[in-house]
Design a protein that fits this description.
By secondary structure, the protein is α/β, with parallel strands linked by helices. Helices cover about 40% and strands about 15% of the residues. The protein has an 8-stranded parallel beta barrel, surrounded by 6 helices. A two-stranded antiparallel ribbon has the order 3-4. Helix 14 links the parallel strand 9 and strand 10. Helix 9 crosses helix 12.
Length: about 450
């Protein structure tokens, strides 16, 4: 099986997607609170979401029932900081209480500092375009690390910068719903590099800060996403072709090497050269303890740029329209370990399914179970071949607010009735409990 006894069998969430309590106890608006009107299906908002802010004890108890070993959650910057240097102690207390509850349940907390909901006070000053955002982020990170690092040892600086920069400032699909003000990606490269540079500098400085201030010896990484291509065949040439396609020489924001090469290897992809200085790169590139990757599918079958000849009619897809590619985690572990040489952690993997409570009062989701069997088996295969795989984090622990999709797409192991906030363990939760007990598929 090759998975260690201390393998991190986890599940994940994000603050804005589950917490609710959008204006309680001193929390100030974030960009998803203030700007999402007109951009989300059915006019849905995260104002209440899963009410995790008030129901976290119930939710942690359900995690313990499943047997979850690690819970990856994010801290809400606008809940903790009402201004660049103004701490909201009531908001910070929520995370102290959540961490204590997790520890009492024997569940390891894994903290993500930024999962997309930038405070409006930062956005109104230019957001990720303003170089001051790096200092603002460091002030926030210091507060969180000082408050939680006595109980937390695993940290992620950012979740999916490819999405919150790419979808937030280039394509306009996510908050702050801005589009690149240029005729082409090439013409807009200066702006894209500026945005990315500030994220990367904030990451590097946050890693330094965590290592300097953490009480418990920290394990630090990022939760990245980006294009991953499987080889079309098993021969060496096919594997190399897929590798080269995954790491293009001239990447854009949605390619993994746009973010990971500067942060891990200390090298700049071609579009960043001449736009990021050697001094800045020294700050960006800090030693990381693991490579975190959010993976839902391989990119071989994406159709963003038009029809894809590899897509056959009737390919199995999730409710998000994403193709189901069970070998994705196997190739992710192999490919990214080959390039970056770090222990490998799946920080997100899961599927949206058509879930509802059936006449017997249960939620039967066999498609999700089959999805998990295939993907986890691939991850195990990579471990058996020698890749140091340290954990698997299912997305998500419960149904939640799925950004621009609103509440239609259900990824959870736990079903949430948003009218009553009643929680129901799905069949996949019981399946995952069995996987955890056995140590694998």
């Amino acid at each position: 099986m090759a998975l260690s006894k201390d393998f991190l069998w986890g599940a994940a969430s994000a603050a804005y997607q589950v917490e609710g309590a959008y204006d309680e106890d001193g929390k100030v608006p974030g960009i998803w609170d203030a700007l999402s009107a007109g951009h989300v299906a059915h006019g849905d908002t995260g104002n209440v979401a899963c009410d995790h802010y008030h129901r976290y004890k119930e939710d942690v108890a359900l995690m313990k029932e499943i047997g979850i070993k690690a819970y990856r959650f994010s801290v809400s910057w606008p809940r903790v900081m009402s201004g660049p240097d103004t701490v909201n102690e009531k908001g910070l207390a929520f995370y102290k209480d959540l961490v204590a509850e997790l520890k009492n349940a024997g569940i390891e907390p894994m903290v993500t500092l930024f999962h997309w909901n930038l405070p409006m006070w930062a956005h109104e000053e230019g957001g990720w375009r303003n170089p001051k955002v790096v200092d603002w982020f460091l002030s926030y990170a210091k507060v969180v690390v000082d408050a939680l690092s006595g109980q937390v040892s695993r940290w992620m600086t950012f979740n999916e910068p490819a999405c919150f920069i790419g979808l937030g400032y280039v394509t306009g699909g996510h908050a702050p719903f801005e589009t690149l003000k240029a005729a082409s990606m090439e013409e807009g490269m200066d702006d894209l590099v500026l945005l990315s540079k500030h994220v990367l500098l904030a990451h590097g400085r946050a890693v330094q800060l965590i290592r300097e201030r953490a009480v418990l010896a920290p394990q630090v990484g990022m939760a990245l996403n980006g294009a991953l291509y499987e080889p079309k065949g098993s021969d060496e040439a096919a594997v190399k072709a897929a590798y080269d396609r995954t790491f293009p020489e001239n990447p854009i924001f949605f390619d993994i090497n746009w973010w990971a090469d500067p942060a891990i290897l200390g090298t700049l992809p071609n579009p960043m050269k001449g736009r990021i200085t050697d001094e800045e790169l020294m700050v960006i590139c800090q030693k990381l303890d693991f490579f975190g990757y959010n993976c839902y599918q391989s990119s071989n079958y994406e159709e963003y740029a038009g029809p894809n000849p590899d897509v056959y009619p009737g390919m199995p897809r999730t409710a998000m329209g994403w193709t189901i590619t069970p070998d994705a985690l196997y190739w992710a572990a192999r490919t990214f370990h080959a390039r970056y040489g770090l222990p490998f952690l799946i920080t997100e993997n899961g599927m949206a399914n058509l879930d509802f409570v059936m006449s017997d009062g249960k939620v039967h989701d066999p498609q999700r179970i089959e999805y998990m069997k295939g993907y986890i088996s691939g991850l195990q295969r990579a471990a058996e071949e020698g890749v140091p795989v340290i954990g698997y984090t299912y997305w998500s622990i419960m149904d939640n607010f799925e950004w621009a999709e609103g509440y239609d797409k259900r990824f959870g192991l736990i079903y949430v009735d948003y009218r009553t906030q009643k929680r129901t363990l799905k069949d996949s939760a019981y399946f995952y409990a069995d996987v955890i007990r056995k140590g694998g598929i």
